[in-house]
Amino acid sequence: MSCSSSGSLSPSNQAANAPKQTARREWKYIASEKTTNNTYLCLAVLDSVLCVIFLHGRSSPQTSPSATPCLMKSLSFEAQPEELEEHPLSPMHYARSGLGTAGLNGRLIAAGGYNREECLRTVECYDPKEDRWTFIAPMRTPRARFQMAVLMGQLYVIGGSNGHSDELSCGETYDPHADEWAQVPELRTNRCNAGVCSLNNKLYVVGGSDPCGQKGLKNCDAFDPVTKTWSNCASLNIRRHQAAVCELDGFMYVIGGAESWNCLNTVERYNPENNTWTLIAPMNVARRGAGVAVHAGKLFVVGGFDGSHALRCVEVYDPARNEWRMLGSMTSSRSNAGVAMLGETIYAVGGFDGNEFLNTMEVYNPETDEWNDCTKALSPLSD
């Protein structure tokens, strides 16, 4: 063979004259029934496609007792769509609340969190194409009540609580190519329930609760991954912990949370150009422990806790109008759940529903304004 300049392979004359080899196709017989003297109706699977096959036998008498009836090769194939069955989205291996969640390389990452027994080190990775959770390398430190962000292709987790001692100041970063976690320089202040966000190639840690866990903080710190140093930024207008934090169009948004025990509906926006915080339109529902995702230039705030109950309600913020509106509610109440965007879908995973810690997941379709905890897959064919 000769190789063309474009990199495509062109056959030589000898190869062109060689008999073509047909790729082997996978068949699976299901059932058949005789419809007339010379016709059979068959069901089979050909390359994962369900087919109806009509077999027409030759009506002329056989010329030899050993001859086999010749079936016409012009078979009639009618591909039938295989039935799709709904089944629940695959749950995580562990129930988790107060976990860190992020989308990375087309996968959903769920790290740490706590259940009724302990804080977790384990990290799970969800493949939406396979609807399957697998484990990746665990964190160095068990932690819950923290948030996760993606910066320069790596995951970052900062602060939180290990369930046994005071709030943590340590942080870690995950390299997906090496499947390893490495330590990052510690925060200047121990804290948990802080918001974490990447903005302009820096990692921001916002608010959180003090070492006694009694009140929120105004602190805002930025980490430079190049110099591996922390610096102070302007303080929030309002103390907050368990706020939802995200980046949109070059601004950082800090949404809801609580000052001490009272839940907030206030929202602040940070401008890194002049290092200032501005209060913008408040949410319709005061909440802490909510999740947030960005889609189509808008902020989607999911679930949380209103001081009395875990929430199912969801609302969206339009920065062009500076207004919030309510959306379709989740199928389950979830506070301190993980929320992340993959493709055109918003995922809510884990959390606490007011009675138990959850390992379940549900997805939101912005086009239909609907949440669903099921996925459709081909129904298995019986032998």
TrEMBL record:
<dbReference type="InterPro" id="IPR015915">
    <property type="entry name" value="Kelch-typ_b-propeller"/>
</dbReference>
<keyword id="KW-0880">Kelch repeat</keyword>
<dbReference type="Pfam" id="PF24681">
    <property type="entry name" value="Kelch_KLHDC2_KLHL20_DRC7"/>
</dbReference>
<feature type="compositionally biased region" description="Low complexity">
    <location>
        <begin position="1"/>
        <end position="12"/>
    </location>
</feature>
<feature type="region of interest" description="Disordered">
    <location>
        <begin position="1"/>
        <end position="21"/>
    </location>
</feature>
<keyword id="KW-0677">Repeat</keyword>
<dbReference type="InterPro" id="IPR006652">
    <property type="entry name" value="Kelch_1"/>
</dbReference>
<protein>
    <submittedName>
        <fullName>Uncharacterized protein</fullName>
    </submittedName>
</protein>
<dbReference type="Pfam" id="PF01344">
    <property type="entry name" value="Kelch_1"/>
</dbReference>
